[in-house]
Amino acid sequence: MEQSAVQELLARLMALESDVRYQAPASDGEAEFRHQPGHIPVLLSAPHGAVHRREGRLKEEDEYTAAMARLVAKRTGAHALYVRRRSPTDPNWYRDVPYKQRLREVIEQGAVRFVLDLHAAAPSRAFGIALGTMVGESCPHHRQAIIRTLEQGGFRREGQGIDRLDVDETFTALGRAGQETITRYVWEGLHVPAAQLEFHPCLRVAERRADATSSVPFHGDPMHIARAIRVLVDLVQLTASS
Ligand SMILES: [Zn+2]
Question: Which of 37, 57, 161, 220 is a plausible cystine mate for 205, CB 3.0–4.6 Å?
Answer without folding.
Answer: 220
